[in-house]
Sequence to fold (136 residues):
Amino acid sequence: MALIRFGVSIEKDLLEKFDRFIKDKEYTNRSEAFRDLIRQELIQKQWQTDQEISGAITLIYDHHKRELVNKLMDIQHDFGGIIISSQHIHLDHDHCLEIVAIKGSPKQAQKLADSLKSVKGVKHGTLSMSATGKGI
Ligand code: NI
Fold:
């Protein structure tokens, strides 16, 4: 895709803050940092306006709680339409890490993440909100 250069007027102290921010985030230049910030806003908009999104739900739980594993499985079967893949990793003797990749409606994705995270015995759960790559 063609790159277009354009000028941006910005207050000196805001630019200094931006430069400190991009240094902390290890960007090599302002342009890439600026592009990422724009994409982040566009992705947020996609989640808010119910466009097709992708993302990942990660869960940490103790697999010895047998009912818990069945419950997580039941919920995932109910949301089969938006789950595109899942991976189960045995972290140690007790703990499992499960990563569920999703693609579809943001509302469904949020509902699935909330349902999984709220199962008793899930020690930690996150929803990573990303995009399908279209429109960003
Ligand atoms: Ni396991």
Summary: Strands lie at 53-62, 83-90, 95-104, 122-131. The mean pLDDT is 95. The chain has four helices and four strands. The longest helix spans residues 30-48.
